[in-house]
Every structure is written in C-alpha cells, then in structure tokens.
Design brief:
- This protein is mostly helical.
- The chain has one domain (10-235, 245-266): Rhopdopsin 7-helix transmembrane proteins, CATH 1.20.1070.
- 77% of the residues lie in helices and 0% in strands.
- The protein has helices at 10-20, 26-48, 51-54, 56-77, 83-109, 115-137, 145-170, 177-202, 207-228, 245-266.
- Helix 2 runs antiparallel to helix 4 and helix 2 packs parallel to helix 9.
- The longest helix is centred in the middle third of the chain and has 27 residues, at 83-109.
- The radius of gyration is 21 Å and the shape is globular.
C-alpha cells in the first residue's frame, strides 16, 4: 500500500475496502442470496437424485462453498475484528477445493479401461504436473499472498480444463450432460476471472466493474451446473476396437519423446 492507494489484485482491493466499511448494497445482497439459493438447489438435487455418489468431488466443492458463503455472511454481520484474515483463509480453502471440480471432470472423462484412454490419462497427468510447476513458479507480483495465489491458480486451472477438453475432443471421448455442465460452467467462471485480473492490470478503473462481474460469472456457472446436474446423464460408452500394435507403439514413442522434452523444460 503506497500513498493511500491499494496495490495488488482486484480481490485484495475489494476486501480491504470492506475492512473499512462492512456495509453491503442491495445488489450485493441480491447476488449473495441468488448464489446461496442456487448452491442449496444443486446440493438438494444432488442428494435427491443420488448424484453425490457418482460425483462426490464436485458436490464436496459445492458444499464447501455454500458453508463458506454462509459463514462469511454471519461473520460480517457480527463484525468479527479479524474478518479480512478469516475471509482469506476461507477463500484459500475454496481455491484448493476448486481442484475437486477439475478432478471430477478428469476422472469422469478418462475413466474408461480402453487402452487409448489409459494413454491419454497418463499424458494428461504428466502435463498437468509440468504446468503446475511452470505456472506456480513463474513471475512475482506485488500484493498479498492470497491474491497472488488466486491469480496463479486461476491460470493453472484454466489451462488444466482446456487441456482436458482438447484431449477429449482429439480422442473423441463423448461427454454426457453432467460432465459438460461441470466443464462449461467452471470454464466460464475461470475464464472471466482471468479476464478481470488482466483488465485490472491494465487500469485500476476497472475495479468497480470487477466487483460485480466476478460474482456474476460464478452465478452463471451455478446456473449451468444446475442445468447440467439436474438428473443423471453420464458419459456415453466408448465403442472402439483395440488399438493396432503399430499405432500403439508409435504413440508410446511420441509419449516418451514428449516426456523427455518436458523434463528438460522444467529442469527435472
């Protein structure tokens, strides 16, 4: 903080402003209660339709965010002295839990026992590990630790999701309504979040818009998740034959070459 101006990410600026004034506008209340209502609806529908048994990681994330939102609202209303610190601790937990959504998409998309999917699964896991090292260690920015973490992890999650969808399309893995809803909903949310960070880096005048665009993007994700997981619609079965031996050998050779190249890039 320099000269009375908050530096760092838009999330940090919003939270620091709330530390000085914990009041919420009518729009804030509307967004908050709309989000909580949709989260309750998703959790309730998942319980009634028993979807939580098939997608436990996804519903675990929704349950955490629902409880987090309720806790933040209550702590704000009672005027907790260290509300900002508590807020960031809960947000850090949400950042970690968001990987549960990506893992749910991953394990549902590449869960078949076919040899093609086994190769794709190993390929994706290694690339995700490599991307994690590159993104989390790349560059330093001014601002609070949690806001830096939110920015880097958001970029990492977006690249993970894009990679999984590209490989699913390349290998022609069919996606059911449930997985499509999870993937597209989270994709919209994380894409808009990254765009907001980029816009704020260009000009701090974007901050008032970010305050509403960011939560509205999450509401859009909740709407897509409600649609996508209203009833059980898994991925269609993959009807393929076994990969011919020459093709399998060629794919293993390319995989080995790519793994060696990635090790050189990240210095392992």
């Amino acid at each position: 903080m320099s000269g009375g101006t908050t530096k760092g990410t838009p999330a940090a600026s919003v939270i620091l402003s709330r530390r000085r004034n914990l009041s919420m506008s009518a729009t804030d209340y509307l967004i908050l209660f709309s989000g909580v209502t949709l989260e309750i609806l998703i959790v309730a529908r998942g319980y009634v339709a028993r979807l939580y048994r098939t997608y436990p990681f996804f519903f675990g994330y929704i349950a955490y965010v629902l409880l987090m939102n309720l806790a933040q609202f209550i702590l704000r209303k009672i005027g907790l002295p260290h509300y900002v610190v508590t807020y960031w601790v809960l947000e850090a937990g949400a950042i970690v839990c968001a990987f549960l959504v990506l893992w749910e998409i991953f394990r549902q998309t590449f869960s078949a026992t076919h040899s093609l999917n086994r190769i794709a699964k190993r390929f994706v896991l290694w690339l995700l590990f490599s991307e994690s090292i590159l993104v989390l260690s790349f560059g330093t920015h001014s601002g609070p630790f949690f806001s830096q973490l939110e920015r880097k992890v958001g970029l990492l999650q977006a690249s993970w999701l894009a990679l999984m969808l590209l490989l699913a399309g390349y290998y022609r893995v069919p996606l059911g309504r449930n997985v499509r809803g999870m993937a597209f909903g989270y994709g919209i949310y994380v894409a808009i979040s990254i765009s907001n960070f980029a816009a704020y880096e260009l000009t701090e005048s974007f901050l008032p818009f970010w305050r509403y665009i960011h939560p509205l993007s999450y509401l859009a994700a909740l709407v897509l998740w409600t649609w996508g997981l209203w009833f059980y619609s898994p991925n269609p079965p993959i009807h393929t034959t076994e990969i011919p031996a020459p093709v399998a050998d060629e794919m293993r050779a390319k995989w080995s070459s790519l793994r060696v190249a990635l090790k050189r890039i990240i210095g392992l």
